[in-house]
Amino acid sequence: MDNTPSKATQMPLEPNKHELPERSKPSKAKKEKAIKPAKAPKGPTPPRTKREAAPPIPNDPDSMFKVGFLADVYQERSSERVITRFPPEPNGYLHIGHSKAIAINFGFARYHGGECYLRFDDTNPAGEEKEFDDSIEETVRWLGFTPKRITHSSDNFDRLYELAEVLIQKDGAYVCHCTKAQIVDQRGGGDGKKPRYACPHRSRPILESLTEFRAMRDGKYKPNGAALRMKQNLEDGNPQMWDLFAYRIPRKKEEEADELLEEDREDAKEEDTKEEDLAPHHYRTGDKWKIYPTYDFTHCLCDSFEGITHSLCTVEFELSRVSYEWLNNKLVDHKPMQREYGRLSMSGTVLSKRKIQKLVQDKHVRSWDDPRLYTLPALRRRGIPPGAILSFVNELGVTKATSNIEIKRFETSVRRYLEMTVPRLMLVLDPIKVVIDDLPDDHLEMLELPFSKDPAYGVHTVPFTKTVYIERSDFREVDSPDYFRMAPGKPVGLMKVPYPITATTFEKHPESGQVTVVHARYERPAEGEKPLKPKSFIHWVASSPTRKSPITAEVRIINPLFNSDNPAAHPSGFLADINPTSEEIFPNAMIETGFEEIRRRAPWPAEAGENGSDSEGVVAGPETVRFQGMRMGYFCVDGDSEAGMEGVVLNRIVSLKEDTGKD
Ligand SMILES: Nc1ncnc2c1ncn2[C@@H]1O[C@H](COP(=O)(O)OP(=O)(O)OP(=O)(O)O)[C@@H](O)[C@H]1O
Ligand SMILES: NC(=O)CC[C@H](N)C(=O)O
């Protein structure tokens, strides 16, 4: 029997989601007012975009449960203790969309004083792995949720099998040997518009189906040679009632045709031919089973076994609600209530496992957790705090409509969160040396810098010496009246340094012509004179071997991985839409010494889920070392860093929302 996927809403030929793409996702100053954009020389220019208009952050992190869709869902069934589940298939890493499902399922239970289980929906052995199981669990904990129980659909394989026999005995299922084409025809053809008619096997005697089902179990049939179908209602207008599969004999390698890339499609076919007779190996049950229950048979029953009260899933399962209830009514007493909410999808990126795999395989990105991706491990590595993700989801709210979100909006939300939470320090991405000639060689002044606008964060000290480094883009060889940073003859403030400095001369590399050193004068006023007031202040770091300053680092600036909002729609394929400057590397960045304290105190502030010492959270990784690099953005330490203060690698989490000069 051919198992090629088909349009689910019209023709639910194979009830496993991998065989049913179409049940599927909707096609898927002291503000320095004086600082003006300047034509900077090469190098990073501090961000100067206007403040993005963004919706206000709901003050209440539980607002999504108090009003709207989820409040209504609760009202429908409020008399029992709430039990929910988050049911991922362990066949890949979770992505941003899953954070909504996690926030909803775990959050709903927590809000109502109930419990939520993490259930691995492992009914499709091809592609499921323990590695994904582990990663998913860690991600859920990283988001700050503790599953009350961790279960697997496969825990119930014996019980499900027994119930399948019961269903046959109740004349509610039959073994079918039709080909895919025959089944399509029985269901009214490809568009479902022709008359529907019963499968010839539908009327076979109960005992015969029972014998054949046992034969399926015992290996008499090759993959797809027979299937157990539910005897539903062909008259019903809902395709989810047209005798869905309950059990199937899968091939070793399954196609996920909804996501299959053209180039992979050919490979997959070849492999399928070679391996088609091999039974798949399940990562938990091994080779015990040759037959596997479908999603439609499994999910509702497992929900019932676990005492789930509210089974919350995404809208593509709305039509499935009827079959969900039909089967539970036939076989079990406890009846969970399925309700469907809108998916969260991100534009400007790809979330499909196969596409991400291709990006990794072809080395467009380093790995599945490359910070340019929108898998949750990638967002974690990029330094986005779990709280920022939850706040983003809460901000969007929950309705039945799909939230199609632009990367820009997500970043605005993250930026706002970081602005209120992380400490600040000075970091120079692309340094240029400044020698303040009139300061003594051994000048060492310790200056106090606050870690935040919030005094609770405290202060730290940084050395100020004769040699400092500033951002290359903060210097211009030729001054102009509309330029307010460093240029010959123009005083500029160094943040928190008592007096301004004025560039006097500069040296250039004979070949590259690049400025190598700027010489400056310290504008200490003579007795009785008023100090000069610079029009702008720039960030800097000092050179002080005794104070171990600066700390050097490689900084990776994360830009969008794709040029367009819809990479999948690119006529030459999504790979053709890759942004060649999705990652900019600054190998010689410099950080001031406050970094040591931030690193020591991380996670600072502590985030739910990053509480390394607590067995329920996850071990705080390098990404929990987060700070605002003043005027430059928000940064975190990348796992590629070495352990000490040498070999630090930073990722820029997001740029700053404000124009330059914000202290
Ligand atoms: N984009 C999304 N928005 C909201 N919820 C989602 C999204 N994607 C998956 N979910 C929900 O997360 C839960 C676990 O999903 P699972 O990993 O099994 O789904 P999936 O549809 O295979 O995901 P994928 O997008 O990786 O194909 C399900 O309840 C599913 O409905
Ligand atoms: N009902 C659901 O939440 C569906 C979960 C299921 N693992 C999926 O395919 O997406």
TrEMBL record:
PROSITE patterns: AA_TRNA_LIGASE_I. Its EC number is 6.1.1.18. Residues 256-265 have a biased composition (Acidic residues). Residues 537-597 form the tRNA synthetases class I (E and Q) anti-codon binding domain. Residues 423-523 form the Glutamyl/glutaminyl-tRNA synthetase class Ib anti-codon binding domain. Residues 1-62, 256-277 are annotated as: Disordered. It catalyses: tRNA(Gln) + L-glutamine + ATP = L-glutaminyl-tRNA(Gln) + AMP + diphosphate. Belongs to the class-I aminoacyl-tRNA synthetase family. This is glutamine--tRNA ligase. It comes from Stereocaulon virgatum.
